[in-house]
């Protein structure tokens, strides 16, 4: 089991739903068809699991897009969800805790080993020393992005990393 032989850098990972059926359709329309009105519903799903578990962090952030992808898409879906969630929780949203340092291929369609190579070293973190950080993403597939983002946060001194996604692919 990979978690035992190669423990992840995040302290906890939680997902609100399996990435299938109506949730998959909602996330796809949110991400690829400008259906940004779904942000409140998706954030509420995360809020509910956080409250159910009694979790809290010092700040909320999100998996960043490289600026070139941000320009082409027009928005970062994870940032929109994180903004709603931070408001619901009354926790500060950090736009600059994480930065993507280079363009990567979209992870969709890549094999597990290709995803790992594609995203390795693509993130840096700052301003998180001794902070418990909640990271928001829309979907976790192999967990490689979660590992890379969490590793960058831990290297920058984060004391705790809670990685949240709305959807999770179980393979």
CATH architecture: 3-Layer(aba) Sandwich
The SSE string, one letter per element, is: HEHHEHHEEHEEHE
N-C termini distance: 14 Å
- What would the average pLDDT be, to the nearest integer? 91
In helices, the fraction of residues equals 40-55%
* Named CATH topology: Rossmann fold
The domain count comes to 1
Number of strands: 7
Work out the radius of gyration: 15 Å
CATH class: Alpha Beta
In percent, how much strand structure appears in the residues? 15-25%
Q: Give the overall silhouette.
A: globular
Structural class computed from helices and strand pairing: alpha/beta
Major β-sheet strand ordering = 1-7-6-2-3
Biggest sheet overview: 5 strands, parallel
Output the number of helix runs: 7
Low-confidence stretches: none
Structure report:
The protein has a single domain (2-168), classed as Rossmann fold (3-Layer(aba) Sandwich). A five-stranded parallel sheet has the order 1-7-6-2-3, sandwiched between helices. It is of the alpha/beta class and 171 residues long. The protein has helices at 2-5, 21-32, 39-53, 67-73, 77-89, 112-119, 144-155; strands spanning 12-18, 59-62, 92-93, 98-100, 123-125, 132-140, 160-168. Helix 7 links the parallel strand 6 and strand 7 (160-168). Helix 3 (39-53) packs across helix 5 (77-89).
Q: Helices and strands in order, then pairings?
A:
Blueprint: H1 2-5, E1 12-18, H2 21-32, H3 39-53, E2 59-62, H4 67-73, H5 77-89, E3 92-93, E4 98-100, H6 112-119, E5 123-125, E6 132-140, H7 144-155, E7 160-168
Parallel strand pairs: 1-7, 2-3, 2-6, 6-7
Antiparallel strand pairs: 4-5
